[in-house]
Design a protein that fits this description.
The chain is mainly alpha-helical and 381 residues long. The protein has two domains: 231 residues; 120 residues, abc type-2 transporter like fold, CATH 3.40.1710. Helix content is 67%, strand content 6%. Strands 2-1-3-4 form a four-stranded mixed beta sheet, with helices on both faces. Helix 4 links the parallel strand 1 and strand 2. Helix 1 packs across helix 2. It is found in: Cell membrane. It comes from Photobacterium rosenbergii.
Length: 381
């Protein structure tokens, strides 16, 4: 066993892609993903204004827009056409059109409409802009109604405010309270990328045996034992990668962690085994590295879309739900999100852990396949 392990470590050092995928490349990808979303919260998103009223009230409305931390009034445009051109060109994320007679109609008790156009192709940015605009306009409306109520006889400001805003909202986020995009996206993106790295690396490691001396010579008289020993170093290296990932996010960066570390680490270990088992099936049943890589890419690349973080799983069609269930990262992320946010107990995490354990069936398939291959006189690739 020691000889086989030493042989595998030597192979990792000799194969540049294996060395990269088991050491620095995944860590570099993790760092890049974190750096992209490190700011956490979208601020000062540029918006444009077309002020057709040029009144004191319209200028006050613009100040409310600019005072919101999410928005920054980047430019004024003399016409809707020029503002629309800037919006389509990507210079601004939203265009506010303040109508003529805004102040006059407001004083007359009418309801003038300030129109806002925003680019909803950028879903997160679009929602942030929309929320900020509604908040700014709601604040101004409340102020106007309060002053109007005071002018009509409500001398107590608190009473006038109560008439302007009869029902107030108390919205309290329970998890990710500051809407940090890093905690929302990075914590899901990294496991999805990690899953791809594990599957691809395992396929490369298995194909290296075919290139060097053939599968039959490598498998020998104990094919299952040789397969397990071969993958042991990679299991260790992948587990270390996962340990670094959660230690940095929930330790060094001090992101909230309300659950138990050992449950999360156990889920990571099961995910590594599940991904390795999937890779073994893809390669050993095709015996072609190119085909196996193509299948692995098609299987794992869309993982982020199916894990249910950016789009609710409850609204996915049946095909998406089936694909979602076949991805190890899906079940691992369920454990991770419930641990860091909700602090679920082991009993509550058991269903998802059992789903990860079910992927060990792929190891049984791989064991049966290598046993058969070891008895074949010549393995064709």
């Amino acid at each position: 066993m020691k000889i086989q392990l030493a042989r595998e470590w030597r192979l990792i050092r000799e194969e540049r892609w294996l060395l990269s995928l088991t050491t620095w490349l995944p860590l570099m990808l993790f760092a890049i993903i974190w750096a992209i979303f490190s700011s956490g919260i979208a601020r000062d998103l540029p918006v444009g204004v077309v002020d057709l009223d040029h009144s004191q009230l319209s200028r006050q409305l613009v100040r409310y827009y600019d005072a919101n931390p999410t928005l920054a009034v980047a430019n004024y445009y003399p016409s809707v056409a020029e503002g629309s051109h800037a919006l389509k060109g990507g210079d601004i994320y939203a265009l506010v059109v303040i109508p003529t007679n805004l102040e006059q109609d407001t004083k007359l008790g009418k309801s003038p409409t300030a129109t806002v156009f925003y680019n909803s192709q950028f879903v997160l940015i679009g929602k942030s802009v929309k929320s900020a605009v509604v908040q700014a306009q709601g604040t101004l409306n409340a102020q106007i109604d309060t002053l109007r109520n005071m002018a009509s006889g409500s001398r107590v400001p608190q009473q006038a405010l109560g008439l302007a805003v009869p029902v107030r909202n108390q919205i309290t986020p329970l998890y990710n309270s500051n809407s940090h995009y890093g905690q929302f996206l990075v914590s899901a993106t990294i496991p999805a990328i990690w899953q791809i790295a594990i599957v691809i690396t395992t396929i490369i490691a298995l194909s290296a045996e075919q290139r060097k001396g053939g599968l039959k010579a490598w498998l020998g008289n104990a094919p299952t034992r040789h397969l397990i020993i071969k993958l042991m170093p990679y299991t260790l290296l992948f587990f270390i990668q996962g340990l670094i990932f959660i230690t940095v996010l929930y330790g060094a960066l001090n992101w909230p962690m309300h659950g138990q570390w050992w449950i999360l680490l156990f889920a990571q270990f099961l995910m590594v085994l599940a991904c390795q088992g999937v890779a073994c099936v893809l390669y050993l049943f095709t015996l072609d590295a190119t085909k196996a890589m193509s299948l692995a890419a098609g299987f794992t690349a869309p993982a982020f879309a199916f894990v249910g973080v950016t789009f609710p799983a409850t609204d996915m069609p049946n095909f998406a739900l089936v694909w979602r269930a076949m991805l190890p990262a899906t079940h691992y992320l369920d454990v991770q999100l419930h641990q860091v946010n909700h602090g679920m107990t082991f009993q509550q995490a058991t269903p998802q852990l059992l789903c990860l354990i079910a992927f060990l069936i792929t190891w049984l398939l791989a064991a049966g396949r290598v046993t058969r291959l070891s008895k074949v006189e010549e393995v064709r690739v």
